[in-house]
Amino acid sequence: MVKSLSINGSVLEGGGQILRNTISFSALSGKPVSICKIRNGRKPPGLKNQHRTGLELAAEIASATLSNAKNGSTEIEFIPGSLKIPGHFVADSVTAGATTLLLQIAFPLLLFSTSPLPSTLTLKGGTNATQAPQIDYAENVFLPFVRRHLGITAELQVKRRGYFPKGGGEVLVTVTPLAQSLRSFSLLDRGEIRCIKGIAHFAGLPGHFGPSMVEGATTYLSENLVGVSDGTIPVEIESRRERNDNTVGAGSGVVLWAEVDGGGIIGGSAVGNKKIDPSVLGKNAAQDLLRGLNAGGCVDEWLEDQIIIFMALAEGDSVHPLWKRRAAIAY
């Protein structure tokens, strides 16, 4: 039996991305891994429901033997078998655990198949949770980026929104295998901001929530980003009220993204709660966007989290300026 590669999950940030990337690499390479000190930089450390569910999903796709994957565990072993793709896979975090984190661990595994037939993922849980990308970010930032720069074909449909703390959302993702090797890319010159777009979504709340979120975001951008107030940088943020019969729980959120001349996309977001005024929520999302823009890179740090694995798997060298705090993901 091949000895498991030992990975220290506490490196630098000590979050869940090391766990997800390691498992994806293991499944694709066929090399077993053991991971210790999982989420050592979080309080409490160890696996939460969505991490365990993601591991179980990856194990199903990769015909893997998964050991010690239980809530609170700080060490697991993953021994991959053969990929069972194409196929249809279902994962349910049961809680409001983020569907986007389930997507991150499974998505790379569905790209490499000898069959041209697509695979599908039905992911259940929170679509708009804290401490994870919102599903609107995956739909409007992550997927457009990997389509354009990596040649990946994938579609995402939000069947039902699930807000914190109830969860209960459902997302359908369709992934077409690559017809050729994953291509590399180079993004070194960000260029000028072409436009800013966004979605202010809400459900089970008064009708003024949407326009107030939009106003809070646009006002902050106008006051703090040169080119917005005079129309040089167009801003288009949609107010979207979800149907109550297609949403679990009341909630709100804002996702913004800036498209730049160099081909990059930089996102910003904020998730609402009962204590946050909607206009302040819009402002918070705009502040998050400006934080990414002021860093000077071609992508934001959350997108970088998600594309590093594809950069490693691509044929040839992919290059873009690296966020310093994300060095752990390249580990």
UniProtKB/TrEMBL annotation:
A Pfam family this chain is assigned to: RTC
Entry annotated with the keyword GTP-binding: no
UniProt keyword Glycosyltransferase present: no
SUPFAM superfamilies in the record: EPT/RTPC-like (SSF55205), RNA 3'-terminal phosphate cyclase, RPTC, insert domain (SSF52913)
Binding of ATP, residues: Q104
Similarity comment text for this entry: Belongs to the RNA 3'-terminal cyclase family. Type 1 subfamily.
Protein name as it appears in the record: RNA 3'-terminal-phosphate cyclase (ATP)
Originating species: Gymnopus androsaceus JB14
Lineage of producing organism: Eukaryota, Fungi, Dikarya, Basidiomycota, Agaricomycotina
